[in-house]
Amino acid sequence: MASRVVVVANQKGGVGKTTTAVNLAACLAALNHSVLLVDLDPQANATSGLGLEKTPGGSAYAALLGQEELIGKVQATTQPNLFIVPSELDLCGAEIELPRMDSHLQRLRRALQALQSEAHFDVIIIDCPPSLGVLTLNAFAAADSVLVPLQCEYYALEGISTVNWLMERVRQAGENPSLSMLGIVMTMYDGRTRLASQVVDEVSRHFGELVFETRIPRSTRLAEAPSHGRSIIQYDPCGTAAAAYEMLAQEVAARLGLGTAATDATAPSAWEAQPAAAQNVA
């Protein structure tokens, strides 16, 4: 079965986008699904958030240019079933180089297709930069669906409207006619405030069942986890934020039709059959 490719995107910064990408990937991996997280943000927060160093030449940049294979960039993490294509500053060059190339919005799709021919992942999650540049457009062109984190604040609907606009442009241009919305997850939720409840109600009124039932709470422990290079289920497994992301992972798995993964976390995976040199953990 082909990998499900999910983009986590919002052009607004500070909405919990990378936090959601990292912790959703970790929780899906904990459900025994083989997960690849692609850090497509030059800031490399997802990379450092999982405890990996920003290594020159370690990102997807050369693969996007067609100079190297993406599978050579895949690294294992400290969590079973979770792998990452890390990022580093050279991805900034993609915004300049890719528009000069043929089929420049299909570069990531081609790189992922080549990767999947050599190693199978149940889910590929792409963490995008907080912008609407060529990297985000490549992610939209390569994905099956988009997951949008929205913070429980006044301007939340502006974020989703922009993502919807971009998705429609990608479909109309023929770059990815089947691109769909996987869902909207409300982040930074504080049930003690009236504003949070009002924002959730308004978003739910506009988007109905697209809104996940799980709400990600504001959490100091969630904010601390990246500084330790760990996902929330490793850093604070009994906390409310860990429980929320575990519930979100179950919702996402159901929407993707993943069911119960057959792969045992302790058994060799398709990726582990690849040469050991390609599996180095930074």
Verbal overview:
The protein is of the alpha/beta class. It has one domain: Rossmann fold, CATH 3.40.50. It has an 8-stranded mixed β-sheet, with helices on both faces. Helix 1 packs across helix 11. The protein is globular.
**Uncertain spans, ≥5 residues at pLDDT below 50?**
262-282
CATH topology: Rossmann fold
The share of residues in extended strands comes to 15-25%
CATH level 4 superfamily: P-loop containing nucleotide triphosphate hydrolases
List the helices and strands and how they pair.
Elements: E1 4-8, H1 17-30, E2 35-39, H2 45-49, H3 61-64, E3 75-76, E4 82-85, H4 94-97, H5 107-116, E5 123-127, H6 134-142, E6 145-151, H7 156-172, E7 180-189, H8 194-207, E8 211-217, H9 220-224, H10 232-235, H11 240-256
Parallel strand pairs: 1-5, 1-6, 2-4, 2-5, 6-7, 7-8
Antiparallel strand pairs: 3-4
Entry summary:
With 282 residues, this protein is of the alpha/beta class. Helices cover 37% and strands 16% of the residues. It has an eight-stranded mixed β-sheet, with helices on both faces.
